Amino acid sequence: MNSPDPLSPRLAARMADIEPFHVVVLVTRAKELEAQGRTIVNMVIGEPDAPSAAPIAEAGIRAIQSGHVRYTPGLGTTALRRAIAQWYLSRYAVDLPAERIGVMPGSSGAMLVTMGVLLDPGDEVLMADPSYPCNRHFVRAMEGRARCIPVGADTAYQLTAAIVERHWSTRTRAVMVASPSNPTGTVIPRDELRAIHDVVRARGGVLIVDEIYHGLTYGAHDTTVLEFGDDVFVLNSFSKYFGMTGWRLGWMVAPEAYMPAIEKLAQNLFISASDIAQQAAIAAFSPEAVAVHEQRREEFRAQRDFLLPRLRDLGFDIPVVPEGAFYIYANCSRHTDDSYAFCLDVLEKAGVAIAPGLDFGEHESSRHVRFSYPKPVPVLAEGVARLEKYLRSR
Ligand SMILES: Cc1ncc(COP(=O)(O)O)c(C=O)c1O
After folding, report:
1. Which of 15, 78, 325, 392 would be a feasible disulfide site paired with 185, CB 3.0-4.6 Å?
2. Confidence tier at 22 by pLDDT (50, 70, 90)
3. Residues 6 or more apart from 144 whose CB is under 8 A from it?
């Protein structure tokens, strides 16, 4: 009998359900092309180019120099939790005890903890298809079942109360929405969010709302679901509006009764979020830093306003104007019925990197691509010119 090869992996079953970002193939190829001397217009990565605002960077440096390089309490420092509570008060007029806030390593950490405290094996979480791919993987990692519900332009690619009602099953434990959404940039209207909350509450489930793109809305109003009740889970982050992706810091707000379990799990998974990042994040709320964030928001809006009509002129269908985040989710079926092959070809021939729909779900994914637009307008203009030439030459 042959003994098993000790070097070949014997992976847990869950790993078969956890998919890589397909976009990584494109990013790697883009780097190779750049190493060969080509310039690539990168509209693939979900983060702005700009560094963190100066007050944040300075506070981070001060934190290192003054020895704030230790573990902190599992739910974060009191000072940061209070600063976040103050942000809810000033920004949304929501009065929140700091004890209901848990500071985590990114909203990614918050998501893992949320699924960990809520799900038993086989419990379902309803979410939209398309949506941010890691969400379903966090559910799977904690032995739950993500039920990704196909949604289209008619509901702005979002779940609605009626859809939630229709798909509720005896196994449904939670509903997860993101507003504004990645990849579509669409926002759930205030009344619809309230209606979703009502349905979930009536059914005895839990509503989880990813508010990570709050602050990055252009015309739409940011409604935190916390206005509607204390029985929700909210995930948020310093990554996007606050421009701190690489600091890996986010937070969650949960019902008070869940906080001991959240603390216990977070302690075990992470011990704590980075002390340095937590010190720096307090400065993210300073008026000087907020002025920078607001100025960047205006730049993102101008970038969206530049790119959107031009993509439509190029034959991409964008039926819903994205009102937030920094993405445009475009139907590319006038050009291809295989968006992944299309993205690879566009990268090779036009030197433009965009994300295939495949990364965000299965529903119509081969007919969609995502443009990430936080780039200076001249860079976007170059991308558009290259795409135009490419599409004309096909
Ligand atoms: C919708 C959404 N949620 C969560 C995340 C995770 O962000 P982070 O862990 O940096 O807070 C992202 C990152 O792109 C995202 O787009």
Report:
1. 325
2. confident
3. 115, 118, 119, 120, 121, 122, 123, 124, 125, 173
> Which residues, 6+ apart, have CB-to-CB distance to 163 below 8 Å?
149, 151, 155
User: Which domains are delineated in the chain?
Assistant: 13-51+289-392 (3.90.1150.10), 57-285 (3.40.640.10)
Q: What is the pLDDT of residues 359-387, one digit of tens each?
A: 999 999 999 999 999 999 999 999 999 99
pTM: 0.96
Helices (H), 203-350: 259-270, 275-283, 287-313, 339-350
Q: Where are the beta strands (DSSP E) in the chain?
A: 41-42, 101-104, 124-129, 145-150, 172-178, 206-210, 233-237, 250-253, 327-331, 352-353, 355-356, 368-372
Q: Which atom of ligand 1 is nearest to the CA of 108?
A: 9
Tell how far the Cα of 392 is from the centroid of ligand 1, in angstroms.
35
| SS3 call for 184 | coil
